[in-house]
Amino acid sequence: MALAASTALAAPMSLKIAFVDPLSGGGASTGEAGLKTFQFMADQLNAKNADLKLEVTGYDNKLNPQESLVQLQKAIDSGARVVVQGNGSSVGAALIDFVGKYNDRNPGKEILYLNYAAVDPALTNAKCNYWHFRFDANSDIKMQALTNYIKGKPEIKKVYLINQDYSHGQAVRAAARAMLKEKRPDIQIVGDEVAPLQKVNDFSPYIAKIKASGADTVITGNWAQDMALLLKAAGDAGLQANFYTYYGGGSGGPTAIKQANLPDRVFQISEGYANIDYKPAHDFEAAFRAKTGQEVTYARVVNLMNVLSKATLAAKSTDPKAIAKAMDSIHQDTLYGKDSFIRPDDHQIFQPIYISRFGPVDTAKVLDSENTGWGWTGTGEIAAQDTLLPTTCKMDRPS
């Protein structure tokens, strides 16, 4: 009996995590990269912490809000207590609503929604919810940093905006217009287009308009297929504008940049990149590439999983209510060794933001991307405290 009790006490806490994101269709490459990163991190953390076992299972939502709710219910029925999602703010909004209502109806059986990439500002403002935590800078935070950088580039005179026609894309274009007008009123916005989300197979007509406009700079929040195909069309048309992107480094993006022959013309604003000078991150990158055959495109997933593990161990419980309480204002070093923190007012994470650009590198000294011989190098860094923007969130907290 004593041996049985000892064995029971030694059993690790088990937490099932449902990954609900596209694993088919135009967003599949991005979804698959995210799932691999979550599962790699689960393995790493399980090996490190004998007291905790994390299990990540993928559920294909086909980038559809309604299908996401169907898949989430399947995950809950299978014992998942945490849902992670990032691709599509329309999906994010649907999950926030579902999780809030589900938890109200099922006290003691709550679930937690950890958002790693859905960046519509509304999700931590008007639509904020106690059970939702965001681990990526929202699109306004990114645009604030990006336009601060552009402010110091007098060579930028004509800007073309092209984005996806849903809440994230609309948020990017609105923030770009407002912030450029404030910081660089001399810049002309010579075009402002939206395209159907992950449904355009040829961006040539859009690129023709950009080329005809005389734009020297393109700003886009496009991701996955919509990013890669936009760059491919730019290369085919010989467009030599600079591209300021949110997701140029996503799966397929680096290859498209190289094929488009746009050396040092594509910039990305993100929470990190492979060639930041920090050895533990380099070691992690090497291990990840060796195991998965891909590079780290989701440093924020690494950060999310480290925060989740820390909060669960601190709570000594896998109860989402206990985890959320421990996570509410948590601090945790990022993959790149810098402090990040959750703001309790809206559950938005704040972390350093980096601006990098993609071009030829000496692969004997630094890492390239997608075996192109080109890689990301830094052009700017914004401290976490300098990314703070106010929130309108009025959060109802459980008693």
From TrEMBL:
The keyword Lipid metabolism does not apply. Keywords: Amino-acid transport, Signal, Transport. Gene3D superfamilies: 3.40.50.2300. Belongs to the leucine-binding protein family. This is Branched-chain amino acid ABC transporter substrate-binding protein. Pfam families: Peripla_BP_6. Residues 15-357 form the Leucine-binding protein domain. It comes from Methylobacterium ajmalii. It comes from the Bacteria. CDD domains: PBP1_SBP-like.
